[in-house]
Amino acid sequence: MAKILGGIATSHIPAIGVAMDKGLEQTPYWKDFFDAYPPVREWLYKQEPDIAVIFYNDHGLEFFHDRKPTFAIGAAAQYENADEGWGIAEIPPVTGETELSWHIVNQLIEHEFDITVCQEMKVDHGLTVPLTLMWPGHRYGHIKVIPIAINCERHPMPKPSRCFDFGKAIGDAIRSYSGNQKVVVFGTGGLSHQLDGQRAGFINKPFDLYCMDKIVNEPEALTKLTNFDLVEQAGSQGVELNMWLAMRGALQGMLTELHRSYHLPISNTGAGLQLLATSDAV
Amino acid sequence: MSQVSHIPGNIMFDGPMATKGYPLNKMCYSFNNADGREAFLANEDDYCEKFGLSVEQKQAVKNRDVIAMLEAGGSIYYLAKFAGILGLNVQDVGGLQTGMTTDEFKAFLVQQGEK
């Protein structure tokens, strides 16, 4: 059966992609942030995963309000990135995967998550920045990606508890797949930030640290929160914690936290990085 | 009914706001394409008209008034693309919304790590 080796939660701030394009990783503003990543990359290189399931939110590249799914999954052999309008460089196509995607879709519908399926899907910085962070220099072509988009923009949006359960259903689907694939699951975005309104610039470091603490062994402390709680405590875009919760939901059994770091501010955001390995990791 | 925001300085982007903001957001969505960006810059008024912006939305765009755009149903995801046309990043936009200079806004962000 396919195995989930672990989960990685990482920020997906566009400015990170821009900094990498410009080679600014070792400048004073960025150094501490980027220096946190090599241990996670080394773990990935050692584990040699075949497939990355990436929970992210589309920021208006693929989905506009004319048709905006609450939950959507890609089932395509390849995903293109494209111009997002404000200057982040486009990256080469991302390799997809269709058989496990369809298996997940079947299992999700069976377990009452009636998801939107996309056989073409442009992926934006929410997905491409984490990919570039993990495999710098666009060396991600070997890994098959299954993108899963969660609406984090327009209320109503799925509740934290629902996102966790959604992740759990996906984890169960992966573990029931008859192959020997090795899978890593990514939760992207967050942590606290607010881009809009007079409250712009709001960051809540204690809350972010609390989330990183609880997500390891007590995620129910977070799934009992409402999206309104998240907006209040983590800012209007802090609802991206929902992607971390989906990632955590996909993991089961005893977890080993191999990495945790947090930097503030990166752009307008408290930027977290966390690696949770399952007992199936090498 | 629109969800009432109880969080000061926060404008909750919900269904009714998405309805109100649709023309504005649709215009800003078009800024994903270079053609859309160029057409806007060539003639802002015509471009706003093409997407059927309300009087309130047109005025907010003309004034580069981010708060007014949000109040008129703008979603920050799309307004960020508009900001890109103007050469503004999210710290500039943060400053515009909070009455700070960009440098003051950046300092404000740093201060929150010291709490």
TrEMBL record, chain A:
Enzyme Commission identifier(s): 1.13.11.8
Tagged with keyword Oxidoreductase: yes
InterPro entries on file: Xdiol_dOase_suB (IPR004183)
Residue span, Extradiol ring-cleavage dioxygenase class III enzyme subunit B domain: 8-270
Stored Pfam families: LigB
UniProt-recorded Gene Ontology molecular function terms: ferrous iron binding; protocatechuate 4,5-dioxygenase activity
Enzyme class label: oxidoreductase
Gene3D superfamilies to which the protein is assigned, alphabetical: LigB-like
Key words of the record: Dioxygenase, Oxidoreductase
Protein name per its UniProtKB record: Protocatechuate 4,5-dioxygenase
UniProtKB/TrEMBL annotation, chain B:
GO molecular function: dioxygenase activity
Cited SUPFAM superfamilies: LigA subunit of an aromatic-ring-opening dioxygenase LigAB (SSF48076)
Keywords assigned: Dioxygenase, Oxidoreductase
Domain Extradiol ring-cleavage dioxygenase LigAB LigA subunit per the UniProt entry, residue ranges: 24-109
Record-linked InterPro entries: LigA_sf, Xdiol_dOase_LigA
The protein, known as: Extradiol ring-cleavage dioxygenase LigAB LigA subunit
Organism whose genome encodes this protein: Marinomonas sp. (strain MWYL1)
